[in-house]
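Minutes, project check-in

Agenda point 3 was the complex the collaborators sent over. CS summarized: three entities, 897 residues total, and the question is how they sit relative to each other. Sequences were read into the notes so everyone works from the same version.
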Amino acid sequence: MNRRVTPWPLVGPATLMFFGLVVVPLTLTVILSFHGYNHTTGIENRFTLTHYQAILSDSYFLGIFWRTLRIAALTTVICAAIGVPEAYVLARMRDPWRSVFLLVIIGPLLVSVVVRAFGWSMLLGSTGLVNQAFMAVGLPTTRLLYTETAIVIALVHVMLPFMVIPVWTSLQKLDPAVEAAALTLGASPFTTLRRIVLPQVTMGMLSGSLIVFGLSASAFAIPGLLGGRRLKMAATLVYDEYMHELNWPLGATIAILVLVANLVIMLAYNHAVEARMRRTMG
Amino acid sequence: MLKNGPVSLLFHSLVVGFVLAPLVVICLVAFTPENTLSMPKFLTPWNGFSLRWFRAIFEHPDFTASFWNSLLLATLSASIAVALSVPAALAIDRMEFPGRASLNALFLSPLIIPHLVLGVAFLRLFALIGATGSFPWLVASHVIIITPYVLRLVLAALSGFDRSIEAAALTLGAGPGTVFRRVTAPMILPGITGGWLLAFINSFDELTMSIFVTSPQTVTLPVRMYMYATESIDPMMAAVSALMIALTAIAMLVLDRAFGLDKILVGQK
Amino acid sequence: MAFLALRSLSKVFGDFAAVRDVDLGVEKGEFVSLLGPSGCGKTTTLQMIAGLAEPTAGTILLDGRDITNEKPNKRGLGIVFQSYALFPHMSVAENVAFGLEMRGVNRAEREARVKAMLQLVRLSEMAERYPRQLSGGQRQRVAIARALVIAPPVLLLDEPLSNLDAKLREEMQFELSRIQRSTGTTTIMVTHDQSEALSISDRVVVMEAGRMTQIDAPFHLYENPANAFISSFVGKMNRLEGQMRGGAAVIAGITLPCAPAGLSEGTAATFTIRPEKIALCAAGQGLIDGTITSRFFLGNTWLMQVETLAGSLAVSLPNQGEEPPRPGSPVALDWPASALRVEEGG
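CS then shared the predicted structure for the full assembly.
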């Protein structure tokens, strides 16, 4: 539109800042991951692939990666199983309930994740409410805190809004008359749900799953507070390498692997989604 | 048109219970007169409540210092993010220039780069330039993380903008400066304010990146709470958390009244 | 007994009665329109027939069977929604086949029936397209095909033409009428457009504020509106206040010939006359003199406003290739006595 006017006075400051604080530090970190490390002398200025080899062959690291993937996948599946029906229930509510409960479901997004993790550590602790409820009904108390179960429960809690939001958005685009049309053509409510509603929220569900998986795989506060010292995930592992082992190059390598895995999954997903779009929407 | 059946409503109640449970427990435990987190008092008859753990916060100067530090950090970084985003959004929305799409992607990239990775990257940069533990550089790192939120809301406000309104103002004799000041700015103001608040909250709550780049002098409240919670768990954590929940709830109500929280959180493109 | 019968049907939302105590009988093969302004209860009535809204009171009988409380997916009626409500993720053929699939019709028969139906609505080439690749008129036809392929006893149309532009709307009116006649399906259409209702219905039901105030064949409805609302809602109408004296209308002291009415001498009355029944002639040669105040050319007609001593009258003249007098010209108006009538219910 305004071809004569140069955009640089407008985008210049932001560009400079993002170049200096996104591109440069990420590049530096990639370089760092190829630096050597010595426990007595620290970071060594030589090129090496040791860290990548170490991580990809050491069962300790592989175990943590495997746990991270497993927990993130489980969280994603549970979030979809809860979030999709919940978004549908919300969409069928009438105002003011609809707005109120939408706020209740997505509002916690704004509460610090440390606070929410802390809340779960109180609920799941050995004398927490969950165990008290177990005792009250005569069940044996179970160790919940510092287990993968605790991490998954809290992650689902934190990630649920990220699943509800895109599904809700795609439900908003759905013409309510479409469901009525299916019913009047003889479809049962269940068939209507499966054949008419579900196919149209698939996109929302996919993008929700992508966000939930990505954020779960790199989650820090939840495994940090609910997994304890022994149950590590990728992010807490990086933190340990940096802050306790002081092996920055190794930590950087893990961080870069997390980033690459994230980007690869995201690109593959986008590719699949686009292919699907082209197929079904012409 | 279609209604929820009893099964749907039962499911919904369970989900709502799940979502609220940890927050409610925090708010209850915060008022315990006991020394421990255990909560038998809530299952047996009410045994009085106490504000002692709220008072305890003020006996921990490190917590109050972190609170003010986080407040200043969030205010500064949200304001800088707005100052960077509004002109950038105008250029991206209104101008054709080479690299426009890539710039947009660069500005939004912190949304898809895990905060953990950003934290590690900032730490490396700050260590190399000798900026470790510096407050201004901490602000800069927060600006990077929260700018995408502001940019998205301002871009959404601009794209939903009927350009013929500006044309109308021009034909009525207003100069381009006046058009921006009297027409464009007031119309995208909700997007800007909503973006500022969202950015503020995100900065105030940020933990994963900050934990790598804060020094003992610049520890933010979430980092302080995380450190504290990994070492010892006592009801003071609950009291601090309850205060944070209350603050967030107030911010949420303000956001909701002013712009509709669902629009800000859901309607962002 | 009527094929579809509504008996004392009511729908109350809170303290608002959307539909009040409505009775209607529709014969097999008949095309009936529910006509009225928005909020008159016509769509609610349609939804109750479809089973998408629950009646507060009354019964609905289909072919003698009480379907008042039957679920919409058991009624087997064909419905065309205002938004068409096509399934966006299914092709045209899949959309049309959906209802047959739900009825367990085997694949071969399904394909044959879908094909025949698409032929009927002239969309055979579009079978593999998706709804968003179609124009408004094509989507409309898919919606009709989807509703008709299940051979419903009754077809319900909810403002079927309101989303189309003017020219397409006119085309689709005739298309709709052709399709309905070729299948002989009993049809109920909801519309707020009087010309739509008049052109394709066998009978028109006028609804006002939840009640059915007139049920008549289109021509009869136009010529004999039952009340003031209908006379102005269906077509244009001039209305003049006056009295009945000696078998003629006396309006503002001027005596004008009018249709006979069973009113006693001196009774105050409202007289009505359609603009197209008034003829324009040279000043002094008609029933009443006047001056043209405005003139609009509508292509096939001229619409003029003429100021007379009896009041301002709208006059509609067919365009016969000659320009009528300009505004400001003195003219006279003439009409057959039968055209000026005493308004019923007024």
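Noted in discussion: The longest strand of chain A covers residues 42-47.
Follow-up: revisit at the next meeting once the mutant set is ready.
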